[in-house]
Design goal:
The chain contains 13 helices and 9 strands. Helix 4 runs parallel beside helix 5, helix 9 crosses helix 11 and helix 12 packs antiparallel against helix 13. It has 2 domains: 161 residues, Rossmann fold (3-Layer(aba) Sandwich), CATH 3.40.50; 100 residues, N-(1-d-carboxylethyl)-l-norvaline Dehydrogenase, domain 2 (Orthogonal Bundle). The chain is globular and about 65 Å long. It starts with a strand and ends with a helix. The chain is α/β, with parallel strands linked by helices. The chain has a 6-stranded parallel beta sheet, sandwiched between helices. It has a 3-stranded mixed beta sheet with strand order 7-8-9.
């Protein structure tokens, strides 16, 4: 399949590489030329604009930072919507507010395009091995049409329902991750209050029944403040804020309250 990919950051680049390694014909676009350098000499094509990319592919994945970035590459000047063939599937891997992805899907439909809300989780290492979790919202037939592309990226694709459900799931996941980081930080504070050796407690918490990916990240660096320069900082703080907006005072708000401790701590560091 002729596949386009836009957004070659820490997640997007290994995803694009996986697509090409699976035998698909890859065309890539990035605003920064340096982002394209890892694809040099691989046989991947490079487009000068999203519109040029759209004219060359049957489906496209987008992995940019936010909804504004998705809208720019889709509907801005020289955007994908100008050239993608009607019926093409657009996989939005970016994490955006559910209302935004629903709006994007409606606008894309006026051009005959099919959008799948398809955020991912697992980080760069799992992207490289094709072991991402992909949370999908949208039409089941559209998902079936890009099954070969999805299988290159993931061994765990979960179809959750209509457009927006994938984004809801990703926001819940990242909010829970942030809450777990905050709770691990509180656990270490409790240990210090009780005179427990910090190194020993960290060793226990990373190998015992409470262990998880989020707590391991916190315990590895020692404090939330030490995560301020981590690539996880901006996506997590963004997603906790989005989750607070979409959930409001509905049941489950306590999860957001705990996650906000992470946001508050990292912003004050």
């Amino acid at each position: 399949m002729r596949v386009g990919f836009i957004g070659l950051g820490s997640m997007g680049l290994p995803m694009a590489q996986r697509i090409q390694a699976a035998g698909h014909e890859l065309t890539a676009y990035a605003r920064r030329p340096a982002s394209l350098e890892p694809l040099a000499g691989t046989g991947a094509k490079v487009a000068a604009t999203p519109a040029e990319l759209g004219a060359a592919v049957e489906t496209v994945g987008i992995c940019v930072f936010d909804a504004a970035g998705v809208e720019e590459v889709m509907f801005g000047p020289n955007g994908l919507a100008e050239t993608l063939e009607p019926g093409a599937v657009v996989l939005v891997h970016s994490t955006v507010a559910p209302a935004h992805i629903q709006k994007i899907a409606r606008q894309a439909a006026t051009h005959g395009l099919r959008v799948l809300d398809a955020p991912v989780s697992g980080g760069g290492p799992r992207a490289l091995t094709g072991e991402l979790t992909i949370m999908v919202g949208g039409d089941a037939e559209a998902l079936a049409d890009v099954a070969d592309v999805m299988s290159a990226l993931s061994n765990h694709v979960v179809h959750l329902g209509g457009i927006g459900t994938g984004s809801y799931a990703k926001l819940i996941n990242n909010t829970m991750f942030s809450a777990q980081v905050a709770l691990a930080d509180e656990a270490m504070k409790a240990g210090r209050s009780l005179g427990v050796d910090p190194a020993g407690l960290a060793a226990i918490l990373t190998t015992s029944s409470s262990a998880c990916v989020a707590s391991a990240m916190l315990l590895r660096v020692g404090s939330i403040a030490a995560l301020a320069d981590s690539p996880a900082n901006l996506p997590l703080t963004k997603d906790v804020t989005l989750m607070a907006d979409v959930l409001g005072d509905a049941p489950g708000k306590e999860l957001v309250e705990v996650a906000r401790r992470f946001v508050t701590a990292i912003r004050s560091s």
